[in-house]
């Protein structure tokens, strides 16, 4: 399946266009008859078969939606949380330790990571260690894997939580600022999954968690850089889930993509949003969101919107809502957002 190395290299003048087939100028009766026979004898029977074989899956999904899901135990598993020094990452570390996990607290802020680790030792007495990592740097992630495995053992639960909440539009920020946002919020997921997934496959046990955002479902202007990365995380996790299925690993390796909305973490960001709002927006504590995410992991849910009911409802119906209604709702909630300054 891999492309040849030359595909990733550039040489002037070597682009070769694909051959475009010419459409027939007139309808060939025999060709038309052949197409009709193909539809009647091949396509329709296949569609009927797909409907029939999908009934058990649809019934299982319906039952799962109605009845509480059976939750798995996380005891004695090793969990790695990036961005674990503070906010949602810290809350995830504490909840995973409460579930009986040995926790690797990874962050570029080593002081904060050590603080989270010490709190876990005092409250839960579980194995824990703090690690400094720049998740945007593949070499740093490679070293992180070696250090975690040496200290705590192979990682069973990977939580990609590290991210930059940068309110930049397309024309704002220096090029290196935009690159940093993309590297931390999106590319880091590639590097950590590439490093830790292989061990999960060998042991036939693992769970990969990604923290996207409500902005990974509902696009928002003035945050183009951030929104793009969160849509990217959503696509990455959807494709990863399908690839795991193709590799017949769905029974032992699971994925969860979370789309939080309104998490009360950094004071500067919360104050900024509140200054724009015409109404008081609901905020969730990091602990509440972390609890919902870990519960989803225990239930092997592939996606979750860990927020208030209205946000979960919005995420569900958003694809069906006219754009004009979305814009009206945004203006009611946030008012007229200031224009970009040059």
Q: How would you describe this protein?
A:
The chain is of the alpha/beta class. The chain contains ten helices and seven strands. Helix 3 links the parallel strand 2 and strand 3. The radius of gyration is 24 Å and the shape is globular. The relative contact order is 0.09.
Short summary of the structure?
With 342 residues, this protein is α/β, with parallel strands linked by helices.
Q: Could you name the ranges where pLDDT drops below 50 across 5 or more consecutive residues? A: none
Order of strands, main sheet, comes to 3-2-1-4-5-6-7
Q: Tell me the major beta sheet.
A: 7 strands, parallel
- The geometry reads as globular
Tell me the layout of helices and strands.
Elements: H1 29-66, E1 78-82, H2 87-98, E2 102-107, H3 110-124, E3 128-132, H4 138-151, E4 157-160, H5 175-203, E5 206-211, H6 224-246, E6 253-258, H7 267-276, H8 286-298, E7 303-304, H9 309-317, H10 323-334
Helix pairs in contact: 2-3, 2-8, 4-5, 5-6
